[in-house]
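Figure 3 (text version): structure tokens given as input.
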């Protein structure tokens, strides 16, 4: 049985199998958790067990076999592809990027001596060499992406790792074999283990955690990235969270429903790059749910507006409009020019300073809420979150970070961000099955942060209120350990480096083929970038800066229907841009194919 338990009076007790109660032991004890669930230990107590003392409940599926089989398929596919490329004397996608492509291939193969090749290798199933990256992840069926498509739109809805999908499917079968036993007695300890695993993954997400490293003019070396994370991450962590929300002690009280902002603590929120307390993390169906939860917890009201920039996610503006209308607050959406003004485009650092200046100048002191995207959806900009959080602290404003693109990309998903709430999707760059997001909430804000769906856990503490929102499919959450294991086999730092270097090559390929540019320096992007489309590929009625969203749709449909190329086309400032994604399964040939497809569309319009 999977239920976890703690020995009385033993803080170091782990989570062994459930104790059984025989009928001759006297008066039986009542339910120990909330509702009528038969879990012997509360969710809060399970989350409080120290890492070294935690024992995972018995797992009814063979995760190791799932992950090992996927690794074997990828290695076999890589061997076939390497043989074919040697026989065909593989040409670079672009002569201008030949050297960079050669380095990328070495990194993808995990060659000894390639930058970052050793990170994370050998962590699954006793493997001694790094798991191949790139095209082999598709041909080796680690992803379900159709191999005949040019899929450079991972940033839209992600792409789930096959080991995660297979693990989720096996969990579904386990649940259906005996639903009462699974839901009533076994589910919660397994969800807790997933929360603990997710907290570790959020803490060690291998990407620059602070804007000055993120906005470097070129992808930093592995050594430089590590040094920047250690130094600047400490500064971000030491500053504390953006604002402290204090609410009433009683769940559902008026004070809890109307939290107030207090000055942030001077104590460090967490050690740089250190652990994230799993008790501060909840799993949710998607980032949209988390954003609504956080906005509902913010102290909005007359004279306490919500503030964000117009380049934020479109649905987020609607969430703020809805919440502010109910609270009698103003929703301030500061109009942000795009492309940015010339002075903000000279360097990545200049861009970061410009963005921070917008919050310095336009965010009202004492506002009820400030919101920033970790990575903007439409424009793919990696925002200087930690520096914006510092502004919010000085102005006494709680900060919500929409980190839908953060986990597995820019990282910094917890206290080091300086935020009050940090919401991230797991199905995008972390590639879990869909239906999974994570939210980190600063301890000071948890009393005011309540789930949108109230159920049995109400009144039993922060974690318990979120762990159960009714009977539904929890398999995506239960797949977290399998996804984490496969990602360890790839190596998180290595994946991050591969995607950054691939993005640089992709931009060079497109800019070289089209004679266009990017609206901001490459260092302002993370795993996605915008590249301007040549005027010839725009319908004649939309040329010379007169393009509309209809012209963007026309080109995107032509790529999809005529060339099997999946790539979003954005209309910004009267110009069309492709927003490319550099996922771990992409390779330079994908962007050469995109370049040729756009040129073919231009020829059709000539």
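Below: residues designed for each position.
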């Amino acid at each position: 049985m999977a239920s976890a338990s703690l020995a009385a009076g033993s803080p170091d007790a782990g989570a062994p199998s459930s104790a059984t109660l025989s009928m001759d032991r006297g008066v039986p004890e009542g339910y120990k958790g909330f509702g009528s669930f038969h879990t012997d230990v509360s969710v809060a107590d399970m989350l409080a067990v120290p890492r070294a003392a935690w024992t995972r409940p018995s797992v009814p599926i063979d995760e190791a076999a799932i992950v090992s089989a996927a690794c074997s398929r990828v290695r076999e596919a890589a061997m076939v592809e390497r043989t074919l490329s040697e026989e065909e004397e593989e040409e670079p996608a672009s002569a201008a990027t030949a050297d960079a492509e050669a380095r990328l291939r070495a990194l993808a193969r995990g060659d000894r001596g390639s930058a970052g090749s050793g990170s994370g290798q050998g962590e699954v199933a006793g493997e001694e060499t790094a798991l191949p990256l790139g095209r082999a992840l598709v041909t080796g069926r680690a992803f379900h992406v159709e191999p005949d498509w040019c899929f450079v739109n991972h940033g839209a809805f992600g792409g789930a790792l096959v080991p995660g999908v297979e693990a989720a499917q096996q969990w579904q079968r386990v649940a259906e074999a005996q639903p009462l036993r699974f839901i009533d007695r076994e589910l919660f300890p397994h969800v807790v283990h997933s929360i603990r695993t997710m907290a570790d993954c959020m803490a060690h997400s291998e990407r620059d955690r602070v804007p000055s490293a993120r906005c470097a003019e070129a992808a930093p070396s592995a050594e430089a990235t590590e040094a920047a994370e250690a130094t600047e991450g400490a500064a971000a962590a030491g500053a504390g969270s953006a604002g402290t929300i204090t609410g009433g002690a009683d769940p559902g009280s008026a004070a809890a429903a109307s939290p107030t902002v207090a000055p942030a603590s001077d104590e460090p929120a967490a050690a740089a790059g250190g652990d994230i307390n799993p008790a501060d993390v909840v799993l949710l169906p998607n980032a949209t749910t988390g954003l609504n939860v956080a906005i509902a917890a913010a102290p909005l009201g007359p004279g306490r507006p919500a503030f964000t920039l117009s380049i934020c996610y479109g649905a987020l503006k609607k969430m703020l409009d809805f919440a502010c209308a109910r609270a009698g607050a103003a929703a301030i959406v500061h109009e942000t020019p795009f492309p940015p003004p010339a002075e903000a485009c000279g360097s990545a650092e200049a861009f970061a300073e410009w963005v921070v200046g917008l919050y310095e100048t336009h965010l009202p002191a004492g506002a009820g809420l400030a919101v920033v995207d970790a990575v903007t959806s439409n424009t793919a900009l990696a925002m200087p979150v930690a520096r914006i959080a510092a502004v919010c602290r000085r102005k006494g404003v709680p900060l919500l970070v929409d980190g839908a693109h953060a986990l597995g990309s820019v990282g910094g998903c917890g206290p080091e961000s300086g935020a009050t709430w940090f919401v991230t999707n797991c199905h995008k760059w972390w590639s879990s099955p869909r239906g999974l997001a994570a939210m980190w909430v600063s301890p000071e804000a948890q009393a005011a942060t309540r789930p949108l769906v109230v159920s049995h856990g109400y009144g039993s503490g922060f974690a318990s209120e979120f762990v159960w929102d009714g009977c539904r499919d929890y398999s995506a959450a239960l797949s977290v350990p399998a996804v984490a294991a496969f990602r360890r086999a790839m190596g998180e730092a290595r994946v991050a480096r591969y995607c950054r270097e691939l993005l640089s090559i992709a931009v060079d390929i497109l800019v070289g083929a089209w004679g266009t540019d990017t609206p901001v320096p490459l260092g302002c992007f993370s795993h996605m970038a915008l590249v301007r489309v040549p005027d010839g590929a725009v319908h004649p009625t939309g040329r010379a800066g007169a393009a509309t969203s209809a012209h963007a749709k026309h080109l995107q449909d032509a790529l999809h229907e005529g060339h099997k190329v999946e790539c979003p086309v954005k209309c910004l400032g009267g110009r069309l841009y492709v927003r490319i994604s550099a996922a771990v399964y992409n390779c330079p040939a994908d962007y050469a194919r995109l370049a040729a497809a756009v040129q073919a569309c231009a020829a059709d319009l000539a």
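The radius of gyration is 25 Å.
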